[in-house]
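quick q for whoever's on today - can somebody do inverse folding on this one?? i tried earlier but teh output was garbage lol. tokens:
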């Protein structure tokens, strides 16, 4: 592997020709796009969102140079649906990716196809989870996959089932042997958790992304880099990097609500408490605490990889002509309400970080408190990259929000049933003034006043004094459904909690 020191030495060898070191373009040229995203990252994993304990200096430094969207929400709190929205600017119920492991339809375009500019060099590196995992597609010229075995079953007909990811071949080059007994000639996700930092998936992506940036410094480019981490498995070489005090249990642990809660959420909690997770007993605070410390280590693992990528951007003279995005697909409960992972409408699962750096607009770093959605990501980036017409998308450009001219808007989130898992469907509205309502079609509904109850411990939905608020917010969801042609059937107005609750 090329280390930072070796790369610096290599660049230093070009000192006789300084023009080679720096991009031959000016800030007035077509901007680059560097889209850095993680998997299952809580918003409150960096200082910009109130957590100064995690050891993530690169994230924190980047945030200090960015517009920080304090209240960004995903489209659906699980991988494939969330990614489908980020990549296409369409809702899961519109693009068909309503649960995990559904391939994004070919007629649904993603960023390179939407920008439609052949002068750009394009690359996608890391987790994809939208079909045909290891194969270059959708207008991306360079492709560096990190996942393969668990996705083989979802390759399209005619695809080579023996094809493996770039990371797989990287591990082979180091002399490692595949360990996956379920998927022959594959490495399990757990295998990577036992490797040193420099051989981890984030480090591999950091090096590959740096190479892309340096190689294409004389042309406009678009690069998406997506780590698996801090997604489970919750383990790495940095498990003990954080002290217990640096990764404490969440304020709403155990946080089991006394007011009505969806049976689907209770079922998830019972499963975690009954079986534990990755060998940790979750009936005790110690089990959750150990996972939380490991999770913090995974955040640091990604942080060091981001540092390498941003170094390549800066040393090659492209920092001031590159739009930088940092976000994730969804969050993680990480002990809140005694839950792990995502798949619920609690804030920890649906609230995501969103940093945006647009240096050529002279945009001063600041925080935007009004809620925004991933549905606005595509039109915003197309707008910033010079696309003249960004109308016709499900979302709207946030450039007006950056300038303080776009009024606050309601945000919507959806949950669509996986036939194999069952459970309810849901539609959620989050308002600028702090209300959040979740309507389940076959389960308990929820209403939270987040101004008074930020930890979401008190479900107000079935309390008579909030009936007017419920009616008002229901109208907002109905209007959203009509506007987006969403056919989910909402529960009857004024209905009592389902008996299962």
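ok took a stab at it. sequence:
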């Amino acid at each position: 592997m090329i280390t930072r020191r070796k790369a610096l030495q290599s660049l230093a060898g070009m000192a006789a020709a300084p023009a080679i070191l720096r991009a031959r373009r000016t800030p007035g040229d077509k901007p680059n796009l560097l889209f850095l995203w993680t998997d299952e990252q809580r918003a409150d994993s960096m200082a910009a969102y109130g957590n100064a304990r995690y050891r993530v200096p690169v994230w924190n430094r980047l945030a200090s140079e960015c517009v920080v969207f304090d209240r960004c929400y995903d489209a659906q709190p699980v991988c494939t649906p969330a990614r489908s929205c980020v990549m296409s600017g369409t809702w899961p119920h519109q693009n068909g990716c309503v649960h995990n492991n559904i391939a994004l339809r070919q007629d649904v375009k993603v960023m390179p196809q939407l920008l439609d500019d052949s002068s750009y060099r394009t690359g996608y590196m890391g987790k994809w989870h939208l079909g045909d995992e290891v194969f270059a597609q959708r207008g991306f010229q360079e492709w560096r996959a990190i996942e393969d075995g668990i996705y083989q079953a979802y390759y399209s007909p005619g695809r080579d089932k023996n094809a493996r990811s770039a990371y797989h071949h990287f591990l082979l080059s180091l002399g490692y042997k595949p360990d996956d007994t379920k998927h022959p000639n594959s490495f399990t996700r757990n295998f990577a958790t036992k490797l040193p930092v420099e051989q981890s998936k984030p480090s591999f992506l950091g090096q590959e992304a740096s190479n892309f940036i340096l190689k294409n410094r004389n042309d406009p480019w678009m690069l998406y880099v997506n780590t698996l981490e801090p997604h489970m498995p919750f383990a790495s070489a940095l498990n003990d990097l954080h002290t217990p005090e640096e990764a404490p249990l969440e304020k709403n642990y155990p946080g089991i609500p006394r007011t009505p809660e969806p049976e689907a959420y209770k079922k998830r909690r019972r499963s975690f408490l009954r079986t534990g997770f990755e060998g940790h007993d979750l009936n005790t605070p110690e089990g959750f605490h150990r996972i939380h410390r490991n999770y913090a280590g995974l955040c640091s693992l990604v942080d060091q990889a981001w540092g390498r990528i941003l170094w390549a951007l800066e040393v090659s003279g492209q920092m001031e002509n590159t739009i930088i995005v940092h976000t994730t697909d969804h969050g993680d409960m990480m002990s809140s309400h005694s839950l792990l992972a995502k798949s619920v409408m609690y804030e920890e699962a649906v609230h995501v970080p969103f940093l945006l750096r647009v240096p050529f607009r002279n945009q001063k770093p600041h925080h935007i408190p009004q809620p925004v959605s991933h549905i606005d990501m595509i039109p915003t980036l197309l707008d910033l990259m010079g696309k003249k017409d960004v109308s016709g998308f499900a979302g709207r450009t946030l450039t007006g929000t950056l300038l303080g001219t776009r009024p606050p808007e309601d945000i919507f989130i959806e949950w669509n049933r996986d036939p194999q898992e069952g459970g309810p469907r849901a539609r959620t509205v989050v308002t600028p003034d702090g209300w959040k309502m979740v309507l389940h079609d076959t389960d308990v509904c929820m209403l939270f006043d987040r101004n008074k109850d930020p930890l979401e411990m008190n479900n107000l939905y079935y309390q008579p004094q909030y009936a007017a608020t419920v009616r008002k917010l229901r109208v907002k969801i109905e209007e959203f459904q009509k506007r987006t042609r969403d056919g989910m059937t909402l529960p009857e107005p004024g209905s009592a909690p389902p008996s299962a609750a």
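fwiw Confidence is low (pLDDT under 50) at residues 1-24. also The first strand starts at residue 32 and ends at 39. so keep that in mind when u check it
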